[in-house]
């Protein structure tokens, strides 16, 4: 592969890794928010 192709591939892989981390972070944020909502719901039912 040419150097230009290698550089393009490396840039693409870096971009994909960055996007993947962003998505994983959003998934964790949503899970935490759902857990907080569930805790609030549970406390409201118990009282």
Q: Note the overall shape.
A: rod-shaped
Structural class: mainly alpha
DSSP summary, beta strand count: 0
- Estimate the helix proportion, in percent: over 70%
- Overall pLDDT metric: 94
Helix and strand element order: H
Proportion of strand residues: under 5%
Round the Cα radius of gyration to an integer and report it. Answer: 20 Å
> End-to-end span in angstroms?
67 Å
Helix count?
A: 1
Low-confidence runs of at least 5 consecutive residues: none
- Describe the biggest sheet? none
Give an overview in words.
The protein has 47 residues and is mainly α. Helix content is 94%, strand content 0%. It contains 1 helix and no strands.
Record keyword descriptors for this entry.
mainly alpha; 94% helix; 47 residues
Q: TL;DR of this structure?
A:
With 47 residues, the protein is mainly α. It contains 1 helix and no strands.
Q: What's the structural blueprint in terms of helices and strands?
A:
Layout (H helix, E strand, L loop, with lengths): L2 H44 L1
